[in-house]
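May I ask you to review the protein record following this short note?
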Amino acid sequence: MGSFSVASKRSGGNGLRGFLMAGVVGAAALFGACALPMAADAMTVQPVVLDLSTAGRGMSQVVTVENTFTNPLPVELRIESLTFDEQGAHGTGKDPGDLLVFPPQALIQPGQTQTFRIQYVGDPALTESKHYYVTVAQLPVKLPEGQSAIQILYNFQVLVSVGPLGVKPALAVTGAELGKNDAGKPVPVLTVTNGSKAHGYLSHGRLRIIEKDASGKEVFRKTLPGPEIQQTIGFGLVTSGQTRRITVPVVLPVEGGTVEAQFTPDGQR
């Protein structure tokens, strides 16, 4: 997922203007189709999804940022909590103080990597999952006096989730219907509900999809394993108590039929 905006910035006392072009990249791994490290001309960030524990060794993990550009790369990590609705995650713009990032800033030389440790320092008796964006933000570089230039700045969003100890997610497909993709072809649209206090991922299981024609005859059956879900849908995060509508990019053979779907978590038959 990416969005871009352009803002003008003065570069010197002579009134010449430079420009900053900022892009938001990341989180596609959550709700879009992306399982690989997020990359651009300036940097590579991995991983883009972290699951932390409220206690023990799992309280912290590292994110690695590589500067693949030809100039030094100044970056800053920013934290915000998330809210959720049927469409997905939304940043609040507020840092609740539940995560600690070290170092918060760094200057990465060309071809070099920098690791950032992210640690949960919030309530150890967490009763339901919490989620955060940690944005790896490329900082603007001061332009030489009297010159103008275009700076392209990328912001990579890493999802950090923390769940209550000893609680498992309970994802289930509670509805399935026919929808259409951008080309007008029939595809399954699923309603997925998580009745647990712990978040879960569709990619941590498998989806079985069946289509029947108007007469009730089965015309399509396919099972998507976790890796294929991750490649086609994304990680498929469903947080505690959330209901999501998810379009599965699998073209079905018949319009006007009915579709059924079932989710089975890893470790279950």
